[in-house]
Design a protein that fits this description.
The protein is mainly beta. Helices cover 13% and strands 41% of the residues.
Length: 158
């Protein structure tokens, strides 16, 4: 079965799709996620290359991509130096995500359906990308690495 033109993503509280939904101007998909730049091969010093991003993608009501706000909170190495407290990389990323979500008028958390899209920021691929191999076709959310496939009910696999 082919990838549908509009891919459902199910809202699941307390999971990796807990910050998706609708707002006054359409739909949104947000997350806090670590990522390496494309093509990076972990070696000594990988901690400096693994970056934590706050991501907010917006779409119109038909699922067409509109815009993204992508912000790097810091690296894994920085997080390890100060793992706790408000100044930690993770705390800063979560606070920035909360600020972005508050900026969406009439926000409600619920299932969304969006079309594939992609962009590269800081050498990192972001988007919902259609993938294919000999056996199946699916859509994968990058850099979160959530896979969506048949039966196209919005649930994901990691």
């Amino acid at each position: 079965m082919a990838v549908p033109p509009v891919i459902p993503i199910a809202y699941e509280p307390k999971s990796r799709t807990e910050t998706i939904g609708h707002y006054a101007d359409g739909q949104f998909l947000a997350s806090v996620t670590y990522a390496f730049p494309e093509g990076y091969r972990p070696d000594d010093g990988w901690e400096e290359h693994k970056r934590l991003y706050t991501v907010l993608h917006t779409f119109d009501s038909q699922g067409h991509y509109r815009d993204s706000e992508i912000w790097c909170a810091g690296t894994w190495a920085e997080q390890q130096l100060a793992p706790d407290g408000e100044s930690s990389v993770l705390s800063r990323a979560r606070a920035h995500l909360a600020k972005l979500l508050r900026s969406l008028p009439r926000r409600s958390y619920k299932d969304i359906a969006v079309r594939p899209f992609q962009l590269t920021v800081d050498g990192v691929l972001f988007g919902l990308v259609v993938k294919e191999d000999e056996e199946e076709t699916w859509a994968e959310l990058y850099p979160d690495r959530l896979g969506f496939a048949e039966p196209w009910d919005g649930t994901y696999d990691t």
